[in-house]
Design goal:
The protein is mainly beta and 381 residues long. It contains 1 helix and 29 strands. The longest helix is centred in the first third of the chain and has 17 residues.
Length: 381
C-alpha cells in the first residue's frame, strides 16, 4: 500500500511542479489489481518567441497492486426470530468484496457461548450449516442454494455484484423459552480466484515491493489476521411465540316473527349468528390454525346461510373479502377446511381455507388485518 501511495504522490508532484499533462486519467479508487497505468509527460516550450516541437517523455507504466479487503455482516438489521424447537432456522449474512480483485471465500460458522450480539446469549444452536445464495434473490431456496463456499465474488469496482448473501441454518432447542437468544458468528477467509469452480489457493501477502511491473498483495487492516485474511460477522436467533386470543359473540339475526337484529327475539326457530375472532399478538405467525366449536343440543347447525345460500361458514381475514366453505357431516370431503363431526354437533374450521389465506395467523399490531373472523349460524330448537 505504501509503495502504491508513493507512486501516486510522486507523479502528482511532478505535474504540479513542471506543469506536465497526463495522457491517461488519474488512477481511480477500486481499480482492479494488475491494471497497467500508463503515463506520458509532454513539454511545450518556445525559443525566441517561436513555438518549438513539443517533447514527449518516455511512457511510464506500473501495475496496480492488490488489496484484499472484505466485510461480513448480519443482513437484516436485527435478530432472526424463531420458535422453540424450530429446525433449520435461517439467519442471513452478506459478504462484500471491498478489495480490488475477484476473490473466492471459504466459510465457517460458530455457535457463540455467552456474550451479547443483539441480545444476551442464553441457549445454543445445533446442526449449523452454511449455504450461499445461488440466484441472488437474498432468500434461502432449498435445493437451489447448495454451495457452501463463495466462488468468484467480484471486486469493489463492480458495485452490487460484489455482495452476496450467505445463509446459516440452525436448530433451536425445544426447551427454549420466549426471549432466549442463540448467537452465532460467520467467518470468511479469502482465497484466490483461479477461474475454476471451487476455492483456489489461500491468499497470502507477498511482502515488500518487487517493482512497478509486479502486483503486490497486501491485506487491509480490517482483514489482516496474520497469515490469512479473515473477517467475521455476528447474528442472533431470538426465540419468540405466537400469542393467540379468541373472542366469541352471538347475535339473533332473524326470528319466526320476521324480526331482524337488533329486534329479533331468541325464541324457538330463530337464527343465531356466532362470530369467533382470533388475534395474534405474539412475535411469530401461528400456523395450521384450527377452530372447533361445539354446538349445544338446544341448537341445530344452519346450512346455506352465506354466499347466496351456497355456503355454511363465512371467514374474513382483516379487511379482505370474505371466503366461504361448506360444512359436510363426517369429514372435510371437499377439502375446503370446514366440516361437522358425524353427530353434527361440532364444527371444525381450518385456516387457510382452499389456499385462500396465508399459511398462518400473522403477528398482531392492533391492525384489523391481523384478525381472523369465523361466522356461522344455528337455529334455536
Amino acid at each position: 500500500m505504501c509503495a502504491l501511495k508513493l507512486k501516486r504522490l510522486f507523479a502528482l508532484g511532478l505535474a504540479a511542479i513542471y506543469g506536465l499533462t497526463w495522457s491517461t486519467s488519474v488512477l481511480a479508487v477500486g481499480t482492479d489489481a494488475g491494471t497497467p497505468i500508463n503515463n506520458t509527460a509532454t513539454v511545450d516550450y518556445k525559443v525566441g518567441g517561436v513555438d518549438q516541437t513539443a517533447i514527449n517523455s518516455p511512457q511510464t507504466t506500473f501495475l496496480v497492486d492488490q488489496v484484499v479487503d472484505f466485510v461480513v455482516a448480519e443482513a437484516d438489521g436485527g435478530n432472526t426470530t424463531v420458535g422453540a424447537g424450530e429446525q433449520d432456522a435461517v439467519a442471513r449474512f452478506t459478504v462484500t468484496n471491498t478489495g480490488n480483485e475477484t476473490q473466492d471465500f471459504d466459510l465457517s460458522v460458530l455457535d457463540l457461548v455467552g456474550g451479547t450480539v443483539f441480545n444476551a446469549d442464553t441457549i445454543n444452536t445445533t446442526g449449523l450449516t452454511i449455504f450461499v445464495d445461488a440466484n441472488d434473490n437474498d432468500v434461502y431456496d432449498v435445493g437451489i442454494d447448495t454451495a457452501t463456499t463463495i466462488d468468484a465474488l467480484s471486486a469493489d469496482d463492480t458495485a452490487g455484484a460484489n455482495v452476496i448473501s450467505v445463509f446459516v441454518l440452525g436448530d433451536i432447542p425445544g426447551t427454549a423459552s420466549d426471549g432466549d437468544a442463540a448467537n452465532i458468528e460467520l467467518t470468511a477467509t479469502a482465497y484466490k480466484d483461479d477461474a475454476a469452480p471451487g476455492l483456489g489457493t489461500i491468499e497470502a501477502e507477498t511482502g515488500g515491493n518487487d517493482g512497478q511491473n509486479s502486483v503486490e498483495i497486501i491485506f487491509s487492516a480490517a482483514v489482516d489476521s496474520g497469515a490469512t485474511a479473515t473477517a467475521t460477522g455476528q447474528d442472533g436467533y431470538l426465540v419468540g411465540l405466537a400469542s393467540l386470543s379468541a373472542i366469541k359473540g352471538s347475535t339473533v339475526v332473524l326470528d319466526p316473527l320476521g324480526q331482524t337484529s337488533p329486534l329479533a327475539l331468541a325464541i324457538p326457530g330463530a337464527f343465531v349468528q356466532y362470530e369467533v375472532t382470533i388475534t395474534n399478538t405474539g412475535v411469530l405467525a401461528a400456523t395450521e390454525v384450527q377452530i372447533t366449536d361445539d354446538i349445544p343440543s338446544e341448537l341445530t347447525f344452519a346450512t346455506g346461510t352465506y354466499n347466496g345460500a351456497a355456503s355454511d361458514v363465512e371467514i374474513v381475514v382483516g379487511a379482505s373479502a370474505p371466503v366461504y366453505c361448506i360444512a359436510e357431516v363426517g369429514g372435510d370431503g371437499n377439502s375446503d377446511g370446514c366440516f361437522l363431526n358425524a353427530a353434527g354437533d361440532s364444527l371444525t374450521v381450518s385456516i387457510p381455507v382452499s389456499g385462500t389465506y396465508p399459511t398462518g395467523l400473522t403477528v398482531g399490531t392492533n391492525s384489523p388485518t391481523d384478525d381472523v373472523i369465523v361466522r356461522f349460524q344455528a337455529t334455536i330448537n
